[in-house]
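To whoever is covering the structure queue this week,

Two jobs came back overnight. Logging them here so there's a record in the thread.

Job A:
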Amino acid sequence: MIKNLLFAVLTFFTFNSFATPVTYTVTKGVTTNVTCNVGDTLKFYGTIASAYGVSINSSVVIAPHVVNSPFYIGYYVVVSGDNSFTINASVSWSGTITVNVATSLNEKNASANITLFPNPVINVLQVSVLNKANLMVYTPTGQVVITTLLEAGANEVDVSKLASGIYYVKVGDVVSKLVKE
């Protein structure tokens, strides 16, 4: 009994340690590329006192505001996707945030049991799973556009109404990038 309890506690802490969020600093004029995981936080800094704002994928996430020493602009919590960022001031500074999907050992093993094709897709996405699972399709900004329950085996998901672009497909705990043509 105690041995099983100890194993369960150790397993819980082992798998949850993979998901510990990290804070990254992005500095205007210095940081051009950042690689992080889903759930991490980006902390933006300016280099001189000025009015700063931050845009990610052309959407304003931190409205321009006056910043004094130490030139801290604000936080942006990363949800998902590949993002381009711009720090606006008198001269803009741009870069790329590459967001890896945070994975645990269970998720890595589970991904071998899920098949998505074709990718890029035009109208119908074929999804094969070993067991029943929930599927969500969402935009890089985190907006859910499709949800459905998958049966074990082969499934078809109609994506014809989605606009062309990049989406993310979450099946259980596994997230995959999907291109819609």
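Job B:
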Amino acid sequence: MWATGHSTGQVYRIDPATGRIVQRIQVGGTLSGLAVAPGGVWVADQAGNRVVRVDPATNRVASRIRTRRGPVWFALAGSQLWVADQMGNAVQRIDPAAAKVTATVPTPGGPLDLGLGGGSLWVPTSSGRLWRVDVQNPGKVTQSRWPRGIFVAQPALGNLWLLDFGGTRAWRIGG
């Protein structure tokens, strides 16, 4: 298992059998989101405006990629890796193999916790909009208005689920 220390700048490797930290990897910065992909553990350094790949075979930082401003959350499905760049008002697609940004899609209103599914990246924003980005053609974007406060968009069980920040309301789209 993996976790980030928001203010410590460390990534923690945890033994799931014991729940103990078995490795502390110094990344630096102010860490938030984390995604585990083949060949790497990706961490968002919000204050450093970058995403960092930790190599799980060596427990060392393998690469650092500049982003716009304030990366926070990831969405991962197959070889698709996206990061919400909250202060930069955009989402960015990262090629994990090449360790570089391959697409940037402006999402005014501050992207929040992303979801990937059905060929789309779902991006709720703090302005109350839900953006749908075609992952094969990131220039193809649609949006809809929702109540302010939607925070999470996650595909599951053939539907798209939206959750509010407080976890008190949920919406199901589809099915």
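Note for Job B: The mean pLDDT is 90.

Please reply-all if you pick these up so we don't duplicate work.
Q.
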